[in-house]
């Protein structure tokens, strides 16, 4: 069966759907609470940091088609066992599906209070599982529609905010700016950082791109520019239209309610927060499934789990993602608890990816010479060192703030996965295939 091929703008929409989600509709109010009217500046800094930690992988996608995403990077540069460990442990991060589903449910409950957020979350998660089972063509079209509506609605709020900002909004020396000092501004950047980097996961779709070494790096550079416009203007609207006291620690929907009548506010709930969380949940299914196919083909998991349906989708992985996402919802875990369990896991994985990316010029024969963007070695290595420093710092912060029992559980889970990988390798069940091409 011929696979659907994604072009530049499909990749841009997929990346936008993956990155514009819970952050812009829920965390901006928290950022205002930390730093007041300078929250929009904190968002611009967070976007820059997100781009910097993604830059090494962006450079790598200029040179090779990495069929299994970050798993391919690790397997080709750091050895079999560590690749298997990374690939399987990455699946645990789908617990975040519960956050997207519960977040969407919390907004729908405002409109339909008779139905609990938990029920809406299960309905939303089920809907997007079905959509992803129908194949990349259906997924891409649906994602494009959702992303266009989402971007349009957020831009409308952003433009409104810029047009109705307080008279001294652009003077950062005015009262209300940096209200929490340098520490408050730092905290705001850290809160917003998590919503500025997820677009890099479209690298996992390399095998489904028409021209991956051209379109993937270009898409990953276009997306942060769009984020500057969307996040910058929305952040400005949240922090510089009304007094800070009225917007600090409030959601974007609450602020829209101050601006518009209930009918418009209700419409915004659907085309703004609900659309944002839906697009993120939709994109995450596919961006997690693709690398797991490569993991299974190499023998880290039994081959039958990667069986494809008639749409070319590994339906069992989609189902596993769905079930893992349901667990926190059915257990009534809070969003904070879910985040504490995944932040450390993602930090470990991201550090492994950066180290593997640093090695690709030496480990992947012909890749450096094949790069479409002729960037110098010093620039590439500098980007890797900077990204690694940022990631290590993030992991350190996650250890300091994580729930101790959830942190211990995460460590135990990682140890079990590592032991499983050593066992599969020792039993001779692993045959890591080359899953990158100079195209």
Task: Name a few traits of the molecule.
single chain; 439 residues; mainly alpha; Amino acid/polyamine transporter I; two-stranded antiparallel ribbon; 19 helices; 1% strand
Q: Which quaternary structure do these chains form?
A: single chain
The averaged pLDDT comes out at 83
Our count of helices gives 19
By CATH reckoning, the class would read Mainly Alpha
Strand ordering within the main sheet: 1-2
Provide the gyration radius in Å.
21 Å
Quick summary:
The protein is mainly α and 439 residues long. It has helices spanning 8-19, 22-35, 39-61, 70-78, 80-90, 96-111, 117-133, 136-163, 181-193, 212-240, 244-247, 252-259, 262-297, 315-330, 335-358, 360-363, 367-370, 377-401, 404-426; strands at residues 65-66, 436-437. The chain has one domain (8-433): Amino acid/polyamine transporter I (Up-down Bundle).
Describe what you observe in this structure.
The protein has 439 residues and is mostly helical. The protein has a single domain (8-433), classed as Amino acid/polyamine transporter I, CATH 1.20.1740. It has helices at 8-19, 22-35, 39-61, 70-78, 80-90, 96-111, 117-133, 136-163, 181-193, 212-240, 244-247, 252-259, 262-297, 315-330, 335-358, 360-363, 367-370, 377-401, 404-426, and strands at 65-66, 436-437. It has a two-stranded antiparallel ribbon with strand order 1-2. Helix 1 (8-19) crosses helix 13 (262-297) and helix 3 (39-61) runs antiparallel to helix 10.
């Amino acid at each position: 069966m011929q696979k659907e091929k994604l072009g530049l703008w499909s990749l841009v929409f997929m990346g936008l759907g993956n990155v514009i989600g819970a952050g812009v509709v829920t965390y901006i109010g928290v950022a205002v609470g930390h730093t007041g009217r300078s929250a929009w500046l904190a968002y611009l800094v967070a976007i820059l940091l997100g781009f910097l930690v993604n830059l090494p992988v962006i450079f790598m996608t200029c040179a090779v088609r990495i069929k299994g995403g970050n798993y391919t990077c690790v397997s080709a540069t750091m050895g079999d066992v560590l690749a298997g460990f990374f690939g399987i442990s990455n699946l645990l991060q789908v617990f975040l599906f519960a956050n997207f589903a519960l977040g969407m449910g919390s907004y729908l409950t405002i409109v339909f209070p008779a139905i609990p957020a938990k029920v809406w979350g299960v309905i939303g998660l089920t809907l997007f599982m079905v959509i992803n089972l129908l194949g990349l063509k259906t997924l891409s079209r649906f994602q494009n529609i959702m992303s266009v509506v989402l971007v349009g609605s957020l831009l409308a709020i952003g433009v409104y905010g810029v047009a109705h900002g307080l008279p001294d909004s652009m003077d950062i020396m005015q009262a209300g700016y940096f209200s929490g000092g340098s520490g408050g501004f730092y905290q705001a950047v850290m809160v917003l950082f998590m919503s500025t980097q997820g677009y890099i996961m479209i690298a996992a779709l390399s095998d489904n791109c028409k021209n991956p070494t051209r379109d993937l790096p270009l898409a990953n550079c276009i997306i942060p520019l769009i984020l500057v416009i969307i996040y910058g203007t929305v952040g400005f609207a949240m922090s510089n239209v009304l007094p800070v006291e009225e917007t600090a620690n409030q959601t974007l929907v609450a602020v829209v309610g101050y601006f518009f009548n209930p009918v418009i506010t209700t419409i915004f709930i659907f085309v703004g927060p609900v659309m944002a969380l839906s697009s993120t949940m939709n994109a995450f299914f596919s961006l997690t499934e693709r690398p797991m196919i490569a993991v299974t083909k190499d023998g880290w998991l039994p081959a039958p789990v990667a069986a494809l349906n008639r749409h070319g989708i590994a339906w069992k992985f989609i189902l596993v993602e769905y079930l893992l996402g349901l667990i926190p919802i059915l257990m009534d875990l809070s969003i904070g608890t879910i985040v504490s369990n995944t932040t450390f896991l993602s930090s470990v994985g991201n550090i492994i990816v950066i180290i593997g990316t640093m090695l690709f010029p030496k480990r992947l024969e012909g890749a450096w010479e094949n790069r479409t963007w002729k960037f110098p070695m010093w620039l590439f290595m500098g980007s890797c060192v900077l990204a690694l420093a940022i990631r290590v710092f993030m992991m350190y912060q996650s250890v300091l703030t994580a729930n101790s029992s959830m942190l211990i559980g995460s460590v135990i889970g990682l140890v079990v996965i590592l032991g499983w990988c050593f066992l599969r390798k020792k039993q001779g069940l692993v045959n890591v295939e080359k899953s990158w091409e100079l195209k």
